[in-house]
Amino acid sequence: MxxxxxxxxxxxxxxxxxxxxxxxxxxxxxxxDVIDVSKNDRNIDIDKYDLxxxxxxxxxxxxxxxxxxxxRSISFKxxxxxFIFKNSGETLSLNNASSRKIIRYMKRKKTIFLGEYHFVxxxxxxxxxxxxxxxxxxxxxxxxxxxxxxxxxxxxFHCYKSNIFITINAFFxxxxxxxxxxxxxxxxxxxxxxxxxxxxxxxxxxxxIYRKNNKIMFHHKCNMCMRCSFYCPVDxxxxxxLNGWKVHNYYNLDYYWNLPLDERDYVHNMSDKFYNNIITHxxxxxxxxxxxxxx
Length: 295
What we know:
With 295 residues, this protein is an alpha/beta fold. It is built from ten helices and nine strands.
């Protein structure tokens, strides 16, 4: 098959996931193109693809606006098969409705929805994940990837339960619509730290950062991915109200992904209530994985 994976990535968790999905498809002999919406002019010959994968990080229980606009700009053909694989740092039920606008648009285009999959990756905003926990979530992500590939090969539909309550709450939590533009009024750069490397300007997926009079400046179309702050080599960028939540660490996802599957029960022994929804999510993955692969 000819496959295209279209994605938006903030701090590169999604791009990492897309890379792993591409490897799985290529390993099965398929031809795979990858499109990063922040670097594309939207001229996509979508008709040549047999399958479309749409991937994004969940922001405030919703799809990032830039990704949604990009998807809506594509004239999908009738009966076009597609699936969604998204990611976040938690699996609260409000995340189940995050793709609703994409699904509605694709339904109007008479496409065929093959299902949705929710992967967990460590926070880059809020708080740093413990290393043992990262090991556990990547372990489960690898299982979910195998489940997704199996389901797509065998036309098995997969989705997450939602309802009107979840949908309404997800709508009111669309923080990237107003949070980023408002918060960007408070962004600032420590000129004593800044080395003028322009990395923040070059890599901002929303083209929100620019230089004026040799100063780093910010527009007000921020999507709150916080890539600029997370990857600043000298930690010179203050991201306003969220600065206290910034994770000052780099997660070596390749290291954890290359570890062998481990069936030891780390996550389920964590007592913090934050982990409750993730524990349930992982139990469901384990159940599906064992049912499919008899392991």
